[in-house]
Amino acid sequence: xxxxxxxxxxxxxxxxxxxxxxxxxxxxxxxxxxxxxxxxxxxxxxxxxxxxxxxxxxxxxxxxxxxxxxxxxxxxxxxxxxxxxxxxxxxxxxxxxxxxxxxxxxxxxxxxxxxxxxxxxxxxxxxxxxxxxxxxxxxxxxxxxxxxxxxxxxxxxxxxxxxxxxxxxxxxxxxxxxxxxxxxxxxxxxxxxxxxxxxxxxxxxxxxxxxxxxxxxxxxxxxxxxxxxxxxxxxxxxxxxxxxxxxxxxxxxxxxxxxxxxxxxxxxxxxxxxxxxxxxxxxxxxxxxxxxxxxxxxxxxxxxxxxx
Length: 308
Known about the structure:
single chain; 308 residues; alpha/beta; Malonyl-Coenzyme A Acyl Carrier Protein, domain 2; 47% helix
């Protein structure tokens, strides 16, 4: 069983869309995505620098559009292969929802446009950020960071927890890490998946009230607790709530394992989730689709999983 994983914010790098847009059909597709998302994805995916695309309002639509583009390419290259299931990390859930037929591509992009703007607005209300804590016992890390007024935002598995909150508190944590851990500041512009995002969650619920969510046509797991969701309406509600609650990617990976995963394919801009899989799903082959050149390896893995 092959799981297709859709990456989240922070996975973008300058120019990452350029290899894809050498193809005129792909460039036209992304131009169409740009109109729906309200962002010039072609420009920002090829020309903008790291600081520019760090902006939440740009980063999130860029990442979801790239994943949609890569998923189309994967399906076109392996039309008879069977995808065992989909999951997205944080904003990647919007791409996963489209891949599973819960939302149309247009609604997925409209969702992420509203999500990004609302989260950027909430982030601007206070100087906050996020840092990765590497190593240490998970429960001990969570208890320790609470003493700094920080919250767990992403339980990524494999000995990594992303924590979030006030920038000064994050700086103090970096100076006084829990013994046996290392703290790495992340290039994101707010304390996502924490109480700081409550206004964004409320606004997103209003923005998506008229969305038509269909029940998934493929297995899809939620970041909320790693469980399989059979209702499209419920998955949309979970995506809205997830803006202000922790991402449990560790539980998603545990669920993949329980379901019998035999391989993982990470969509563009790939790399982060395959890295986590190496530690959290040891022995499971993983392919990151960073450019079109990675498609043959992904197709081979997908075909092998379909035949198993």
